[in-house]
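To: structure desk
From: M.T.
Subject: fold request, one chain
Message: Could you run this one when you get a chance? Sequence is below, nothing fancy, just the single chain.
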Amino acid sequence: MKIRIAATVAIAAAIGLGATGCGLVAPQSTLEVYAPSDGVDVSMTGVDLRNVMLIADESGENFNVVFGAVNRTGKPAKLTINFAGEGSDTASADFTLPTGNTLFGNPEGEEAPVLVNLPGLKVGSTIKAYFQVPGADEKNHNVTVLDGTLKEYQDYVLPIDFTKADEKPSAVKQETADEKASESTINDDQQP
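Reply: Done. Structure tokens follow.
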């Protein structure tokens, strides 16, 4: 009788282990870290970049560099992203990352969008990007190239004349400041 009970317990244990034991040796995909959106995530010493992607402007020739940054260094950090296109086509984008969380690429945001030009780059493709922060190892990832087809990215599609429009106000401000300075009479009566 004792042998029968022991055999029944042994068989039940073998069936139970066989049915549930595959989790002991099989890889678990829920433990893999991945970017759950269209962009890529990049982590470097003290700086994390989230959802990095390129969004084509209205012409499809220039690309807005869009991402969120988390700077945990306690001081502003410099970031350089080098994009390597087909053949010898390359483009570089430089950013200053304030401490804390910052969004880049939104024309309505605090940080001005940065455009890169890569001839032949098509929407729907990916491009190799190299990320560098001083004091950290360079990281490379394939970055997705998108457009405004999806509603959530339409705000990041910049007009064709975005860079020209961006330059005009500062040039007008400079001319106005120069005119005011030339009309100033402060310290005109002092001898050199």
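Reply (cont.): Residues 162-183 form the longest helix (22 residues). Let me know if you need anything else for the meeting.
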